[in-house]
Structure formats: structure tokens, C-alpha cells
Amino acid sequence: MQTALTIAGSDPTGGAGLQADLQVFRRFEIHGCGVVTALTVQDTSGVRQVLPVFPSVVLDQLRVLLADLPPSAVKIGMLASDDVLRNVVLGLATLPETTPLVIDPVLRASDGSFLLEKRAWSGLCEFLSRASLVTPNLEEAAELTGTDVSSEAGCEAAARVFITEMGAGAALLTGGHRDGAPDDLLAIRGDNGPLFRWLRADRIESAPAHGTGCALSAAITAALAAGRSLEEATLEAQAFVQSALRRAQPLGGGARLLDFS
Ligand code: PLP
Where residue 203 falls among pLDDT bands split at 50, 70, 90? Predict the structure, then answer.
């Protein structure tokens, strides 16, 4: 059995964050390890409070874990604060360069609350040089690259910034929050600049669901841990999230929760 590691915030609803990532890893028959970066107080209606874990404890969790259970792939989700981000960077210094690293640049929750303090955003961009793949939604892509992503050409320009300027190996811009078709753009570093592939998808008409971005990046990480190529992992993960979204359940009073079964 392969092992994957998620470095993420706790979402007590189980719909997003570390709790969701571990459920997704399990569905891909991957053993999931989890390093908690932050506690949140939240329900299906939104995030009420964010409490970063002591940065030195995040570092200790990583050091102890990586020495014992080397993962086949790693995902980074919510990092909460600049101090936590810096200690995650430090803690991953011993991760072999060949281990795929997927970074979901979680900036805000759907309700607008900050999940990464703004002064840490530039540090996150610097860390993208270690990412095999970065998975921003359109708002995150616009905020981090300063690019207008309202057109397909704009999305390609933003992906180019992630790869050429920030040094990520690939970028997946998720279009689920766009009006109209929710197409995703996969851009992979090539010898003569990024290679673009648009992944066309049909919109699933439904009430809002919680945690789709977390589930997508976790599913890609699990598929990479299972040995798939980046392109195969992305397609498999996209199909997985679409089917979980189709079956999403109104278990609480707010957003529906994805059905990972
Ligand atoms: N809580 C945690 C710990 C998360 O990592 C995320 C998203 O990454 C959220 C909440 C927000 O999820 P959503 O924006 O889908 O409500």
C-alpha cells in the first residue's frame, strides 16, 4: 500500500480540509497521513474561527512523520499563517525532489473568510517553485498572479505566470466558480513554454457544495501516489469529484457535503 500525506487545516464538518482529504485517500486505496496546520470552528454555513497550530509543532509533526513514513505524494491545503507556511517549507526540506507535491493555494473559504493571512501570500508564491502541481480556483489564480482570468486567454496567461515566473511544474485552474461551463485548464511545463489542455466539463446544477477544491487536489495526490501520470491523475480526480458532487448530501443546514462513497 502506498502512503500519501496531507498538510491541511481541520474542518470539523468532514466536508473539506484534512478530514475530507483522508476520506478521499482511502477511496483511492492509499494510506493517508495528516499533519494539522490549523483548527477551525465551522459548520456547513461557514467558517467562524481559525486557530493556527503552533508553527514549531507543525514542524515537529513533519520531521517525526517524514522520518518514519515517507509518503509517495504530498498535498498542501490550508496553511493559515505566514509562520505556519515557513515551518511547512522547513519541514519539507528533506522531502526527496522526486516526491510529487500538490499545492492547493487555499486563500479564503467560500464565505470570504481568510484561510491564509494576506501577508503570507507572497511566501506561498515563492514556495510554488517546489510544486509539481498548483491547483488554484479562478479567484485564487487572479489574486496570486494579478491576471484577469475572465477569458480563456486570461486563464492561459495566469497558468503561464504560475509555471514560468513562479516555477511550478504544472497548474490546474479550476473553473467551477465561473459562470457558464466549468472547464478546467491544465498547463504543464514544456521545453518551449507551457502546454495547455482544456478539460471540458458539464455543469452539475445543484445547491452549493462544500470542499470540492480540497477533494480535487486530494484525489490528484492520491492518484499520483498510486503511480499515475499528472495528466491521468487529473482526469481521474476530475471524474471522482464530479460523481461525488452529483451525489452530494444536504446533511446540515448550509452547503451540501460531497459523497465520497
Ligand atoms: N476549511 C478548511 C480546513 C479548508 O481547507 C477549506 C478549503 O480549502 C474550507 C474550510 C473551505 O471550503 P469551502 O470553500 O469549500 O467552503
Answer: confident
pTM over 0.85: yes
Do the Cβ atoms of 245 and 201 come closer than 8 Å? no
Mean pLDDT, range 198-206, rounded to an integer: 80
User: Which band of pLDDT confidence, cut at 50, 70 and 90, is reported for residue 180?
Assistant: low
What is the chain's length?
A: 261
In sequence order, the β-bridge partners of residue 31 are 3
In angstroms, the Cα distances linking 56 to 10, 37, 85, 139, 183 are: 18, 11, 11, 31, 40
Q: Are 100 and 224 in contact (CB under 8 A)?
A: yes
Mutate-to-test residue for ligand 1 from 21, 41, 106, 114, highest number of ligand atoms within 8 A of CB: 106
Domains and CATH numbers, the chain: 3-142+205-257 (3.40.1190.20)
